Amino acid sequence: MSRSRRHPLSLSALALVAVVLLLLPLIALLVRTPWQRMPALLGSDAVQQALWLSVRCALAATVLSVVLGIPLAWVLARSHLPGRRLLRGLVAVPLVLPPVVGGVALLLAFGRQGVLGPLLVEAGAVPAFTTWGVILAETFVALPFLVLTVEGALSGLARDHEEVAATLGARPLRVFLTVTLPAIWPSVLSGAVLAGARALGEFGATTTFAGSLPGETQTVPLAVYALLQDDPSAAYALSAVLLTVSVAMVLALRSVRR
Amino acid sequence: MSLRAHVRTDLLDVEIAVAAGEVVALVGPNGAGKTSLVRALAGLLRADGSVCVGDVEIATLPPADRRVGWLPQVPSLFGHLTARDNAAFSLRARGVRRGPARASAQGWLQRLGVGELGDRLPHELSGGEAARVALARALAAEPSLLLLDEPLAALDNTTRDEVRRLLRSTLAGGPAAVLVVTHDPVDVVALADRVVVLEAGRVLQTGTPTQVAAAPRSPWVASLLGQNSWRGTTSERGLLIEDAHIAVAEPLEPGLPALALCEPSAVTLHRVPPEGSARTVLHGRVLELRSLGGRVRVAVASAPPVLAEVTGAAAADLDLAVGTEVWAAVKATEVRLVRL
Fold it and tell me: What count of CB pairs under 8 Å joins A to B?
């Protein structure tokens, strides 16, 4: 190729700025991470607590997103429900909503003073400021990732497999479970990875709706924020852990999509 | 079981009957409503009217309860299931346990010549193999009515002839009524007992392939089915049909059942026996003359009967009339053989 075919210098320069902007903070984090103290820091009870709470809550939110999200995606892609397009738009709102606002909205729905408050108080199951609250907040922000991914796959799926299955005697639920679901399985997996990553990193909605109670609602991102005041190097170490997990998620996503 | 149906949609108003074991070809130009009719019979398209299979009215039943088999143009095998599990799908859907369902599916794969491919996934199958597995899957459901929507359209020529032979041997005289949508005249002649011609959502014509070819009711039918087709046994140099012999430029292995096909426009007519080799000459009287556009279609009562299509001028030159004695010459290079 001749030199004239190379990219314009101005574009390359801006791209370089972008790369620095994206990578420099990550490199700085890795450089400043106290690797020697890592085992001790990560082994401490407080950190262990936060780690396991994060893992449990993110897993629960992912499972909830899959269990609730696949049926919702199916309704959006396949039903002839009136208002279906409006619903599709609404599902995307939590994606762009500031998480703090999500937390406030959750409080107003499921908090002690919320719309369902009296009912929940009566039942003795107010999720706000409990581990259930963390799971609820994480599901709120993670669910749209799964729904939109799966809905895209369902809409793009040719119908003839499902129709053949029906003529072979399979009822609609069986068609869905044995034909449709296996066909869109890669999208379900990548939607679940996206949802899981979003849940694991959730901060704003969680802190607003569930607070930051160590051992109960203080997940890793909340612990990082709290530790920055008292023990910055512990905060760096935990951040490095989250970074590692994020990289692993990206790799998982790529292998699922292949 | 037999089919008697009257299907109505916005664009379709069709009465159709197929006897048990009968194979009916459904032909018509694009947009005539062939696929809509088939989908309506399978319950995949909402339609008014009645669909009786045997004595049972199935028009109100969902597809799963109709026992109507449907093969779309592409085999549409379930990608995550092996060939055997694809074939076992209908039995599993009806609650048969995995073991017996697989055993029965394996039997169907064997019958369709793909018994050794049971463990393969669909993406590991060739087009012809996938078509056979899809047919096994449909037949394993033991449908009362089998609908095939251009089952051979996606296959290459060699495979198409193979799968057509398989369809012929599997479907003819079976328990199901069979409806085959096709654009290929060879399918019609080779597979069908009867043809139903659809145009603009209505039945234009029905009859045996020979009847429809001899008296096509529209130019479209004439061009689809208007070619000469003779059934016989292959010989060293062509096709034997009772006492007659059709010479063919590219003969097949002798002793096989086959079909010789030739366009009427490739047949020349003469008032005296023509000279020359490498062709077949059939002798008889003109049975029927029919003008089609600027050309004249001439049916000659020879043995076997032959259709010729000549220009109006040529017909006048030859002074053709019903009962005129003629010799029809068929060049060996113009005849194509298809194994049955």
Answer: 66
Q: How far apart are CA B96 and CA B45, in angstroms?
A: 28
d(CA B228, CA B248): 14
Helix axes A220-230, A45-78, angle to 10 degrees: 140
Minimal C-alpha gap between B331 and chain A (Å): 45
Q: Which residues of A touch B78 (CB under 8 A)?
A: 161, 165, 178-179, 182-183
Domain positions in chain A: 52-219
| Distance (Å) from the alpha carbon of B68 to chain A's nearest alpha carbon | 6
Q: How far is A104 from chain B (nearest CA, A)?
A: 44
Residues of A in contact with B66 (CB under 8 A): 167
**3-class DSSP state for residue B156?**
coil
Q: Rounded CA gap, B124 and B117, in Å? A: 9
Q: Is the pLDDT of residue A5 over 70?
A: no
Question: Could you give the domains of chain B?
Answer: 3-225 (3.40.50.300), 228-339 (2.40.50.100)
Candidate CATH numbers 1.10.10.10, 1.10.3720.10, 3.40.50.720, 2.60.120.330; the one for domain A52-219: 1.10.3720.10
DSSP string for A36-49: TTHHHHHHSHHHHH
CA closest to A182 among chain B residues: B80
The predicted model gives B244-267 an average pLDDT of 87
Query: Confidence class of residue B278 from pLDDT cuts 50, 70 and 90?
Result: low
SS3 category, A149: helix
For residue B11, the 8-state DSSP code is T
- Collapsing DSSP to helix, strand or coil, B41 comes out as helix
Whether A169 sits inside 8 A of B90 (CB atoms) is yes
Of B43, B62, B141, the CB nearest to A168: B141
Residues of B in contact with A185 (CB under 8 A): 80
**Residue A16, φ and ψ in degrees, nearest 5:** -65, -45
CB contact under 8 A, B138 and A168: yes
Of B108, B120, B227, give the one whose Cα is nearest residue B166.
B108
Residue in chain B closest to A159 (alpha carbons) equals B76
**Between these two residues, B215 and A78, which has the higher pLDDT value?**
A78
Does the distance separating the beta carbons of A170 and B64 come in below 8 Å?
A: yes
Say if CB B280 and CB B302 are below 8 A apart. Answer: no
Tell me how far CA of residue A136 lies from CA of A104, A111, A206, B34, B340, in angstroms.
Answer: 13, 12, 9, 52, 67
Residue of B53, B80, B150 best to disrupt the A interface, most CBs of A under 10 A: B80
Report the distance separating Cα B51 and Cα B16, nearest Å: 9
Q: What is the mean pLDDT of residues A154-158?
A: 88
Mutate to test the interface with B, among A80, A160, A161, A167 (most CBs of B within 10 A): A167
Q: Tell me if B44 and A167 make a contact (CB, 8 A cut-off).
A: yes
Taking only the tens place, the pLDDT of each residue in B6-63 is 988 988 999 999 998 899 999 988 888 999 999 999 999 988 988 988 888 888 899 9
Summarised one tens digit per residue, pLDDT across range A108-123 is: 888 888 788 778 888 8
Lowest mean pLDDT among A41-55, A189-203, B105-119: A41-55
CB atoms A165 and B78 under 8 Å: yes
Specify whether the CB–CB gap between B248 and B260 falls below 8 A.
yes
